Amino acid sequence: MARYAAFGTTFGPTGEAVVAQVKSISGPGIKLDTVDVTTHDSTGGWEEVVGAILRSGEVKLELVYDPSNATHSNVAHGLLGLLILKASHSFTLTFPDAVAWVLPGLVTGFEPASPHDGVLTATVTIKVSGSPTLV
User: Fold this and answer.
1) Which of 18, 34, 89, 96 has the largest count of CB atoms under 10 Å?
2) What does the alpha-carbon distance between residue 32 and residue 57 come to, in Å, rounded to a whole number?
């Protein structure tokens, strides 16, 4: 079984520069909603379910935030700019083995943090909207 270090994973708008200074990437948390179809004559009285809607989840980025970095704050293509423009975009999450997921979505959160004893950071949330594509 192959094992990969996460170091080198990248994320960014498809066809644009990857987001700089990313400390961690989590998600998307893909889930399947279920619908209860249990009836009085279900075998052994066990709950029965069927699959319903696939939930595409969110991607969260933890950044060392640089307000002058174009991938963070550029009005047209930076994460903060995409949030302000309410612009749907395609994003690419590339793992170290070169497998990539293309994710349609919207930047829905950009939260900077300025601790008195630390570095300027930002947490960015991208809500995936539609089907992720494995490339």
Assistant:
1) 89
2) 10
Which CATH fold would you assign to the domain 10-134?
Factor Xa Inhibitor (4.10.410)
> Whose CA is closest to 55, among 27, 88, 19?
27
User: 98: pLDDT confidence band, cut at 50, 70 and 90?
Assistant: confident
Say whether the peptide bond before residue 28 is cis (omega within 30 degrees of 0).
yes
d(CA 131, CA 101): 10
Helix (H) or strand (E) holding 32: strand 31-36
pLDDT exceeds cutoff 70 at 46: yes
Residue 2, pLDDT score: 67
Q: What is the pTM of this model?
A: 0.85
- As to burial, measured by CB atoms within 10 angstroms (0-12 exposed, 13-18 middle, 19+ buried), residue 63 is buried
